Amino acid sequence: MATRKIELTKLSLDNLPPADPGRLYEIADALVPGLRVRVADSEVAAGRFKGKASIITFVLVARFPPSLNPTRRALGRYSRDGGPLTLQAARDKAREWKGKIAEGIDPAAELRQQQDAQEAAQREADRQREAEEEATRNQKSLKDLLDTYDKEVLVHHKRGAATRRALDGKKGLLKNFVDRDPGSLTRSEIVLVLKQRAKVASTSANRQLAYASAFFNWCVDEELLTANPVEKVKKPSKENVRDRHHSLAELREIWAATKKLGYPFEQLYQLLIVLPMRREENAAIPIAELDLASDEAPHDAVWTLPSGRTKKANALRVPLSSLARSIIKEAIAHPDRPKESEFVFTTTAETSVSGFSKAKKRLDAEIQAARVKLAATQGTKAVTMPHWILHDLRTTFNTLACDVLGVDAHVADRILNHVATATTSKVMRIYNRAELFEPRKKALQAWADLLEREVINGVRAEGFATALAA
């Protein structure tokens, strides 16, 4: 049957009947040679065009290169509702294809290539998007790395918790960067924060830099980062060796002020004066480390400090003077101490005491209040005690024990559990590793006797004691 040719219109297309079942028919467009519509046997089920052909496809009949025989290529399906392929769009597309054929180009093959390229580009875009999404899911923030560092490294360090606070705690160097991609951190932005920290706490800023550098070096070693952003950054502040030590008169003031603090800081600060170990060592004494001996032999009391709780991992047997023993026993028996706790100094039962900064401020305030009251009775102006820190109590012991009591320097050094420096001779380094238990026991008892005589008994005779009690 010959193909009918008419000038196709939208009306004629909309009203084309479906083909006979299992058959197709075509109608050629009289305006564009080679353009036809192919009508299938399906019909519209309902609506305005019910019973009309539902599938009408535009085709172009031409000799597509390199073939010499005419073939049909589909241009697309007709859209009654004004979709992308209207009658006019089909005629324009047919003319475009015929122009390409005249140039020896197969437009259908070209279209397939374009479609293949678009599909390939889309697949690549999808792959990249999925890769980026996967990378985003797997991307670790700085906090993630800090958490891993904490679990794998800091947990094994005695001061691990303090180190973590210095890194991203309330005043931590990296606090403002925890949600960042660690690889995006720059040297300049960290140094800026470091300089700001140094303005208010120079020594603390130096420590924070050291902790941050150790953390970033670990990240590099674990191949989590390619570089340490604070490598070769200089300390923001010059540190001076502290030489502040108290006079016996100042110790009397401090001792009197401790009595206003109550448990646990009253006994803890007194013990720091009597037993010049490091603050963290004294503050976290478990009762299990103590052998307080009997009241008949109080001088046999000893504290066995394990290596895991000392700064340089040096275990030490610490002889307890009678005064140190009595302070510890008072703390253990104090009604405010949770009796189920393993620690001598605690407020929570589960952990050793904390809150040193607030307690030190209270202590300083009590000292100053006593000075003000004493000055008022004397008609003079109160002078503030020169700045001091708890570590100065260790320097005070070292100074007064050697200068006043005549304790040998190496014995005092062993009491403080110092590590001999590289400048010390080899013989002295070996000698200083000796326990020297008996010399230390004698020195600490002499120190306790001096304190009882000149400080504790002296408190009762000083005017500021009356002022504190007021």
UniProtKB/TrEMBL annotation:
Keyword Hydrolase: no
Compositionally biased region (Basic and acidic residues): 121-142
PROSITE patterns cross-referenced by the UniProt entry: CB, TYR_RECOMBINASE
Domain Core-binding (CB), residue spans: 140-220
GO terms under biological process: DNA integration; DNA recombination
GO molecular function: DNA binding
Low complexity: bias regions: 108-120
Keyword Protein biosynthesis: no
InterPro entries xrefs: CB, DNA_brk_join_enz, Integrase-like_cat_sf, Integrase_catalytic, Integrase_DNA-bd_sf, Integrase_DNA_bind_dom, Integrase_recombinase_N, Phage_Integrase
Region: Disordered, residue numbers: 105-142
Family matches, as Pfam families: Arm-DNA-bind_3
Signal peptide coordinates: none
CDD domains, per the entry: INT_P4_C
Record-annotated Tyr recombinase domain positions: 241-445
Record's keyword terms, sorted: DNA integration, DNA recombination, DNA-binding
Database matches in PANTHER family: PROPHAGE INTEGRASE (PTHR30629), PROPHAGE INTEGRASE INTS-RELATED (PTHR30629:SF2)
Family per record: Belongs to the 'phage' integrase family.
Protein name as it appears in the record: Putative integrase
Source organism: Sphingobium indicum (strain DSM 16413 / CCM 7287 / MTCC 6362 / UT26 / NBRC 101211 / UT26S) (Sphingobium japonicum)
